[in-house]
Amino acid sequence: MEYEGVAVDVEFLKRYSTVLNDELQQVREQIFEQAGVSFNMDSPKQLGEILFQKMQIPSEGKKTKTGQYATDEETLQELATSYPVAAAVLRYRTLQKLKSTYVDALPALIHPRTGRVHSSFNQAVTSTGRLSSSNPNLQNIPIRTEEGREVRKAFVPRNSDFVLLSADYSQIELRLMAALSQDAAMLEAFHQHLDIHTATAARVFGVALDAVSSDLRRKAKMVNFGIIYGISAFGLAQRLGIPRGEAKTLIEEYFKQYPGVQSYMQHSIEQARQRGYAETILGSRRYLKDLHSRNFTVRGFAERNAINAPIQGSAADMIKIAMIRIHETLRQSQSQARLIFQVHDELLLDVPRHEIESVRILVKEAMEQAMPLPVPIVAETGIGNNWLEAH
DNA sequence: TCTCTCACG
DNA sequence: ACGTACGTGAGAGAC
User: Fold this and answer.
1) Rounded distance between C-alpha atoms, residue A305 and residue A379, angstroms
2) Spans of chain A, pLDDT less than 70
């Protein structure tokens, strides 16, 4: 993947940079007008002083650990409805991040001889067994906002005879939780090919599947994610913006519905404490000395690591097996298709148009059959003339 | 080099 | 009383 690299549409990025620049200029002027002074908005220190001293916006005492005013997204979001300047700063941040980190940075990283971007995929960085990507990081290219997604259009096939194939695992970590915990209800939901968040909402809130509202699904989704991270009522309450007592009730009901998950989580911590490490399906270890700490916070971190590491790490094991088999099969068949990068649960390949259907099937099968598990594993594929289209 | 912020799974 | 959701990398400012 490092050697192959990925082609980037520089002209597209240059045009988009100009678009972003124009809007940034407008937002900058709005903010300076409301503040009555111009300053460096990229400096959190200056920004905090302007908002909370000069403009007298009530800060509610929120400070960073070094005593500066907090100006992070959560803080500004709370102020945004009452103070238009806060909304404008958020808008500025979104656009500035996009421009500086992605749109303007990528063209500079194109290799002069290959005309492609060759990221590093680091194999010994993370504590869970995932890869990481650097120079540039191709694993954090925007997708969540409309403007951000645009950047993905700049990732293109090597030439017009090729297309991009994207293949991503569906809910891989929750499927692994079902498999590792052997929880009957969670296994059943996946065997029935239900939407897991909807199925969880139906169980936890005691309603029919077709009576699950988007809000109930959203809450169930947060709990499902929380489970993978080693849930706490505090963390869940903060995410959902609900009182801690409510979050606690929600978690209790979750464990009633998925009792196997609860016992698996307890078992994970207990086993890691006895052995000194947590391990993945393939046996790679995360050592967790802090499980014996007398400090509540330190121990809590280690306990959540003991729950999360086998899940996140086994997902990493699985996609690595798939990658090795895909590479081998492509090599043996003298295919011109190439794996070009991995984003934790997604693979991207550059594929000759005439090979597309055979490669699509090969990749999907390799991903879904990487390991024998008591739960169906599903990989979805897409094809396009850029990464956004393919995804 | 550290801090703050924010992009992703 | 304690006080956090798991895993990363990068840009910009401050020092």
Assistant:
1) 26
2) none
The beta strand positions in A95-219, using DSSP E, are 116-117, 120-122, 132-134, 155-156, 162-169
Rounded to 5 degrees, what angle do the CA atoms A76, A78, A79 make? 65
Give the pLDDT of residue A380: 97
Per DSSP, the residues of A334-376 read T---EEEEE-SSEEEEEEEGGGHHHHHHHHHHHHHTSS--SS-
- Which contiguous run of DSSP H or E holds residue A73? helix A73-80
Q: Indicate the SS3 state at residue A182.
A: coil
CA–CA separation, A308 and A14 (whole Å): 41
Closest CA to A391 of A37, A176, A153, A139: A153
Q: What share of chain A is helix, strand, coil (3-state, %, to 5)?
A: 60, 10, 30
The residues with which A384 forms a beta bridge, in sequence order, are: A164
Positive or negative torsion for Cα A257, A263, A268, A273: positive
Spatial distance between the Cα atoms of A3 and A35, rounded to a whole number of angstroms:
49
Indicate if CB(A68) is under 7 A from strand B.
Answer: yes
CA A57 to the chain's CA centroid: 33
Give the residue nearest to nucleotide C8 (CA to C1'). A132
Instruction: Pick out residues 121-180 of chain A having their CB under 7 A from any atom of nucleic acid strand B.
Output: 139-145, 148
Closest by alpha carbon to A316, among A95, A106, A124? A124
What 3-state DSSP class applies to A7?
A: strand
pLDDT at A60: 83
**Which bases of strand C sit closer than 7 A to a protein CB?**
1-14
Per-residue pLDDT tens digits for A77-126? 999 999 999 999 999 999 999 999 999 999 999 999 999 999 999 999 99
- Quick check: A115 and A7 in contact, CB under 8 A? yes
A300 CA → C3 C1’, Å: 10
